[in-house]
Amino acid sequence: MASTVGKTITCKAAIAWGPGKDLSYEDVEVLPPRAHEVRIKIEYTGVCHTDAYTLSGKDPEGAFPVILGHEGAGTVESVGEGVTNVKPGDHVVALYTPECKECKFCKSNKTNLCGKIRATQGKGVMPDGTSRFRARGQDILHFMGTSTFSQYTVVADISVVAVQQDAPMDRTCLLGCGITTGYGAARITARVEEGSNVAVFGAGCVGLSVVQGAVAQKAGKIIVVDVNPAKEEWARRFGATDFVNPAQLPEGKSVVDRLIEMTDGGCDYTFDCTGNVSVMRAALEACHKGWGESIIIGVAAAGQEIATRPFQLVTGRVWRGSAFGGVKGRSQLPDLVTDYLEGRLKVDEFITHRKTLPEINDAFEVMKQGDCIRAVLNMQA
Ligand code: NAD
Ligand code: AHE
Ligand code: ZN
């Protein structure tokens, strides 16, 4: 096959032309990578709720037309000038939380947020302010610095990490968001201690990954809270010790009361994995007085705000947040792939649905149903 290096590639992508519209499967032109950029042939991508959230038009940063997708794995097709961290043929995972290793954030051991390209990433363009995608004669925006719903994508070199060649890409794609986010939130953001009591609100891919992280940290009680009764079996399979359905509590008893009762005064750590601001409040208020920490992971819709009585914080409860599980992608993601390959990290178990790129709108539909943990798209089929 003739080399594509340095040339524009025409391939298929799912383009979001406007909020609330179905994605359109069509040709896209993918320009060659410029300096410090990498063009990736995407093999597999997971569909995350954040993609649906932006498609719905509720993301204040959302702009159209755009190629969504941020849970992708593939092979490096070509690199621009000055790229040293990956080379053509490498198997990679795209990183929506980049790691430049040079900025104030990257040099801090307190955060995984990198500041280098955040402004342009939020605007849907490459760091030089332009797009590498064209369709129907117009520029198409990038999303989260990754745009994995295209057979080829271009990302900044700091937004990609090479991983073990023998790791299956239909699994490593899920380490690009959901699994890493929950697992890291328990292990890196919260640093759950041995024997501590944990409550996880929402047992989707993120919440079940928090459970997995809490098990790795040898937590005591791991209580999953979900309004979907079918999630009890899922929660226990991942290591939850207890399950609470807020919709099935006796009249007058709140989920906060129930958790406080089950943990002799409140949880040491709670996690919101729902994106619902009322749940976020309950998660904070279910924490133990004096030291309980609540970590917000869920993405709330635009305009939503969190509230509680300040007394909750005055009396020692801590409210925190976590993006991508506090994981510094280039430094730490290969270790998670090793954990997966060596049987310490569950990944296969999260895949409930498999689809191809032309079926992407079906994948968005199944994601909204209670029996889907993750749908993985085969991008080249
Ligand atoms: P999901 O929809 O698969 O899971 C959410 C779960 O919450 C479901 O099981 C649902 O039944 C349950 N739920 C809904 N309302 C509830 C309520 N009132 N009380 C208890 N349970 C309730 O979603 P997911 O893929 O696991 O993602 C969870 C959230 O995390 C989303 O908001 C997503 O956008 C966000 N997210 C954030 C990051 C980050 O880096 N911060 C990364 C990935 C995803
Ligand atoms: N763009 C939204 C916020 C969306 C958001 O919170 N994104 C999470 C990742 S969700 C992955 O599924 C995140 O990491 N945010 C940190 C960042 O720098 O984007 C808004 O409200 O503007
Ligand atoms: Zn995501």
TrEMBL record:
The keyword Oxidoreductase applies. InterPro entries: ADH-like_C (IPR013149), ADH-like_N (IPR013154), ADH_3 (IPR014183), ADH_Zn_CS (IPR002328), ER (IPR020843), GroES-like_sf (IPR011032), NAD(P)-bd_dom_sf (IPR036291). One of its GO terms (cellular component) is cytosol. GO terms for biological process: amino acid catabolic process to alcohol via Ehrlich pathway; formaldehyde catabolic process; furaldehyde metabolic process. Pfam families: ADH_N, ADH_zinc_N. One of its GO terms (molecular function) is S-nitrosoglutathione reductase (NADH) activity. Residues 18-377 form the Enoyl reductase (ER) domain. The keyword RNA-binding does not apply. Its cofactor is Zn(2+). It is an enzyme of class 1 (oxidoreductase). Its EC number is 1.1.1.284. Keywords: Metal-binding, NAD, Oxidoreductase, Zinc. It catalyses: S-nitrosoglutathione + NADH + H(+) = S-(hydroxysulfenamide)glutathione + NAD(+); a primary alcohol + NAD(+) = an aldehyde + NADH + H(+); S-(hydroxymethyl)glutathione + NAD(+) = S-formylglutathione + NADH + H(+); a secondary alcohol + NAD(+) = a ketone + NADH + H(+). NCBIfam families: adh_III_F_hyde (TIGR02818). Belongs to the zinc-containing alcohol dehydrogenase family. Class-III subfamily. This is S-(hydroxymethyl)glutathione dehydrogenase. It comes from Chaetomium globosum (strain ATCC 6205 / CBS 148.51 / DSM 1962 / NBRC 6347 / NRRL 1970) (Soil fungus).
